[in-house]
Specification:
53 residues, mainly alpha, globular, 2 strands
Length: 53
């Protein structure tokens, strides 16, 4: 189990290691009613998926 602190976008639910990135995601999701591929590629979920490929 990791003790790493993660920050979640309250709009889409993705998790980030950086609070700043989570806030950028939230702002983008709110403004565009969808996710930015450039931001979501930084998500913990995407990193985990890359490890499995």
């Amino acid at each position: 189990m990791s003790d790493k602190v993660l920050y979640q976008c309250p709009v889409c639910g993705l998790h980030y290691e950086s609070e700043e990135t989570a806030k950028e995601c939230e702002a983008y999701c709110t403004q565009h009613n969808g996710c930015s591929l450039d931001i979501t590629k930084l998500s913990v979920e995407r990193s985990e998926a890359n490890k499995k490929e």
